[in-house]
Design goal:
The complex is a heterodimer of chains A (390) and B (256). Chain A is an alpha/beta fold and 390 residues long. Chain A has twelve helices and five strands. In chain A, helix 7 runs antiparallel to helix 9 (268-307). The chains are: A alpha/beta (390), B alpha/beta (256).
Chain lengths: 390, 256
């Protein structure tokens, strides 16, 4: 702010804010120099803060700001704070050399005290830990219930679809099949091929010690077809598509697009959630099949190189080592895992509230949860298949 | 009182998006201490003009001088210093969603001035009260604020460093008439107490009447008229006539 310069007043000083403190027969005279702006007041902030405490009560003080160059809200606030501090100590305080615009500014830097935030009471750390644990547990249970609720809603929507198949949104379904399925093919193939090779190489090195290196083929076939193929694919898809579902639906939620859909009589379940989940259920088994093949090829290349086995005998050993169910066990798991990844991804998206930060935290949560669930599900399937003897 | 010294000078500004020319040889001068309102139909490039002045968009031709300096010709450090002399309130507030209202206001103190925490808190409280927010709003996050509060909080952030120019992008859009009138009052108040120059993009005729010293009309890819409200009323350009003599304009005028 540029002060209006009156004729009677000498040219004001500029530069850093400074203070001159004089004691005139018990009256403290504080003369301010320089610019009192947000950039310069830090220099005198501490000094001004302690002024009132240095004076005996019932004294008097004069703040002379006639020489101040520029005064802005920060400077005005410090003046006002000091005046109020003096008054609180019972010291009479007068301001000198203030012009009209500075006066308005001074009056505008209101200083009604803000109610202090409630002081947190120190609590027993054990109670605190117990409290945190309880909160966490309630959170987990609540989250579980919400997931169950969401699963119910999705199945209801699926039921409506079965009754009336024309409600299926074909174009979004195909779109998501392409994005979640087709586009994932190169990545899934590359990674599973490499892992297949690694499994074969490690297996061959260990089994060679027993002279049982031909069993590397059994190792690769069983581990890949039963477990690694599906698990790896599901984890890749959870990271790739589960997160995308959350982020897409989440930002739509944030921009009130979901609400807009509801007001237009459109069902977000039908428009957004079902196409995504169905797309995953259709594409994940296909991806798993590709992963199995690539794993066997990757393993095969290593076996052929390390054990000097011909492609013919590799295939023959593969057929001996595995039957249809070795392959079927892996593939059967795929739609269930797809369902869980889709459910978790979409639910996290719909749980977004308010800020962009929420999209981020829900996306993290969705990926972590779906990978966790995929592994748990795999463990349950392993128990189940062992129990029925496949 | 506005003085004749220009604080913003736009000369021969050209902005185009591929084949779509937004501005062609646009000239605009804003004087120190005035409140200027920018009006124009949708798509006439009000926001593009604002972004060009702020240096958020590099113009295709022409020069923009703020504080007498062409910001595009300064190096990074010099430009940053100049940028601290203005405050901007974006249309939807553009508050940092991870920070509370007080922390939003303190961003400039923290990053540019390295101010002690206590003083920073006090000054943030002063600004928060100055823009008419409840003091306890200081600890709320932007997602917990209503639209009007968000605008005020954004204004508090814009005012943090006591800027010389305040840019307001549609400050009263989305506010109820009482809130909008209070905002006009607030801008008037700030102009008088802080001696601000205010550059305001607005569609609100009441605001134009209430706070603007001058109005600039954007049309035909340039500023077709700049002057006081009386000049606007006297113009016989068809768009200006329709804008300032339409039914809503008459209502706004009647209420003066």
């Amino acid at each position: 702010m540029h002060r209006v310069r009156s004729e009677a007043r000498p040219v004001n000083s500029s530069g850093p804010a400074t203070l001159e403190i004089e004691d005139e027969d018990g009256t403290l005279r504080v003369v301010a120099h320089g610019d009192w702006t947000v950039r310069s007041v830090m220099a005198i902030d501490q000094r001004m803060r302690h002024l009132a405490g240095e004076l005996p009560a019932s004294g008097a003080a004069i703040l002379d700001i006639a020489d101040v160059g520029r005064l802005d809200t920060a400077g005005a606030w410090i003046l006002r704070r000091t005046v109020e501090e003096f008054e609180l100590h019972g010291i009479k305080c007068t301001l000198e050399g203030m012009d009209e615009s500075e006066q308005t500014l001074f009056e505008n830097v209101d200083s009604t005290p803000i109610p202090e935030p409630e002081v947190t009471v120190k609590i027993n750390p054990f109670i605190y830990i117990a409290g945190r644990t309880g909160d966490g547990l309630i959170g987990v249970v609540g989250e579980f219930l919400r997931i169950v609720d969401f699963i119910g809603q999705v199945f209801l929507a699926m039921g409506r679809l079965v009754v009336k198949p024309s409600r299926l949104r074909l174009i979004p379904l195909v779109h998501h099949m392409e994005k979640a399925g087709m586009d994932a093919v190169p990545l899934v193939c590359l990674l599973t091929g490499l892992i297949g090779g690694v499994v074969a190489q490690q297996g061959a090195t260990q089994l060679r010690q027993f002279g049982a290196d031909v069993f590397t083929v059994n190792l690769v076939a069983i581990i890949f077809l039963r477990e690694v193929g599906i698990l790896l694919t599901a984890i890749i898809v959870a990271g790739r598509s589960g997160s995308a579902f959350t982020a897409e639906i989440g930002s739509m939620k944030m921009r009130e697009e979901i609400d807009a859909m509801r007001t237009l009589g459109l069902d977000p379940m039908e428009m957004l959630v079902l196409p995504r989940i169905l797309a995953l259920i259709i594409t994940l088994p296909i991806l798993t099949f590709l992963a199995d093949i690539m794993g066997l090829i990757g393993g095969g290349i290593v076996v052929m190189l390390m054990l000097n086995m011909s492609p013919d005998s590799y295939i023959a050993r593969l057929q001996e080592a595995s039957d249809f169910w070795t392959f079927g066990v892996g593939l059967v798991k795929a739609p269930f895992m797809a369902l869980m990844i889709g459910l978790i991804g979409c639910r996290a998206g719909l749980a977004v509230a308010g800020s962009a930060e929420s999209v981020g935290s829900q996306t993290t949560r969705s990926v972590v949860q779906s990978i966790f669930v995929v592994i748990i599900l795999d463990a349950f399937f392993a128990l189940f298949f062992t129990a029925i003897g496949i | 009182m506005p003085t004749a010294t220009p604080i913003i000078e736009v000369r021969g500004l050209v902005n185009a998006f591929e084949d779509n020319v937004i501005h062609r040889n646009l000239d605009l001068t804003v004087r120190r201490g005035e409140v200027i309102g920018i009006v124009g139909g949708s798509g006439t490039g009000k926001s593009v003009l604002l972004r060009s002045i702020l240096g958020l968009r590099h113009p295709d031709a022409g020069s923009v001088k703020v504080f007498g300096k062409d910001l595009t010709k300064l190096n990074d450090d010099e430009r940053r210093l100049e940028e601290q002399r203005w405050g901007v309130m974006f249309q939807d507030g553009a508050l940092f969603s991870a920070l509370t209202v007080a922390e939003n206001v303190q961003v400039a103190y923290r990053e540019h001035l390295h101010m002690p925490k206590l003083l920073m808190d006090e000054l943030a409280d002063v600004k928060i009260r100055m823009v008419g927010l409840r003091p306890d709003a200081r600890d709320l996050y932007p997602s917990e604020l209503s639209g009007g509060m968000r605008k005020r909080a954004s204004l508090a952030r814009a005012l943090a460093l006591d800027p010389e120019i305040l840019f307001l992008d549609e400050p009263t859009a989305g506010l109820d008439p009482i809130g909008a009138a209070a905002f006009d009052e607030l801008v008037n108040n700030l102009k008088h107490t802080l001696g601000l120059t205010v550059f305001m993009v607005t569609h609100d005729l009441d605001s134009l009447y209430a706070v603007c010293d001058r109005v600039a009309v954007l049309a035909e890819q340039r500023v077709i008229l700049i002057g006081t409200m009386d000049d606007m009323m006297a113009s016989d350009h068809p768009w200006i006539r329709e804008y300032f003599h339409g039914p809503r304009a008459r209502a706004a005028q009647k209420s003066r």
